[in-house]
């Protein structure tokens, strides 16, 4: 079955960096668009970024210039490099199957917590 397992979250000071990873299994990873979404405390899901099977990427305005999505198809792993983190980036980050548009997300992992302290 499809499994998406995120890791790499943690506590970081504002201005710091984190790299999230998502280990995927149970499907043909290289053939799928993958995405990152997040949920801030008390708020709904927010689409952050997506990468398609050809390596094309797109970002939410809040992530442009600070976050970089990438994938390693040989390792079935999705990444999100996050730089210049802000307090508003705090939340649970989820890896998602599909998701070039937010409404196309098929499945999400269990999430990894990112907390940015001021």
How is this structure best described in words?
- The protein is 0% helix and 51% strand.
- Strands 2, 4, 5, 6, 9, 10 and 11 form a 7-stranded mixed beta sheet that branches. A 4-stranded antiparallel beta sheet has the order 1-3-8-7, with no helix packed on it.
- Strand 5 and strand 6 (57-59) form a beta hairpin.
- By secondary structure, it is an all-beta fold.
- The protein contains no helices and 11 strands.
- The protein has strands at 3-7, 10-13, 18-25, 34-39, 45-51, 57-59, 67-72, 77-82, 91-97, 107-108, 112-117.
- The model has no long low-confidence stretch (mean pLDDT 97).
Main features:
four-stranded antiparallel beta sheet; 0% helix
Q: What is the compact description of this entry?
A:
The protein has about 120 residues and is mainly beta. It has strands at about 5, 10-15, 20-25, 35-40, 45-50, 55-60, 65-70, 75-80, 90-95, 105-110, 110-115.
* Total E-strand runs: 11
Query: Helices and strands: which structural class?
Result: mainly beta
Quaternary structure type: single chain
| Percent of residues in beta strands | over 45%
What's the shape? Answer: globular
Could you describe the largest sheet, including whether it forms a barrel?
7 strands, mixed
Overall mean pLDDT stands at: 97
Percent of residues in helices comes to under 10%
**String of helices and strands:** EEEEEEEEEEE
The poorly predicted ranges are none
Radius of gyration: 13 Å
Distance between the termini: 40 Å
Number of helices, counting only DSSP H or I runs of 4 residues or more: 0
């Amino acid at each position: 079955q499809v499994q998406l397992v995120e890791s790499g979250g943690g506590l970081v000071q504002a201005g710091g960096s984190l790299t999230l990873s998502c280990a995927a299994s149970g499907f043909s990873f290289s053939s799928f668009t993958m995405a990152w979404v997040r949920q801030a405390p008390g708020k709904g899901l927010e689409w952050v970024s997506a990468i398609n099977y050809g390596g094309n990427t797109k970002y939410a305005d809040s992530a442009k210039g600070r976050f970089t999505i990438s994938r390693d198809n040989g390792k079935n792993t999705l990444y999100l490099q996050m730089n210049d983190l802000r307090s508003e980036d705090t939340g649970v980050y989820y890896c998602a199957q599909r998701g070039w548009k937010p409404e196309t997300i098929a499945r999400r992992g269990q999430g990894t917590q990112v907390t940015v302290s001021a």
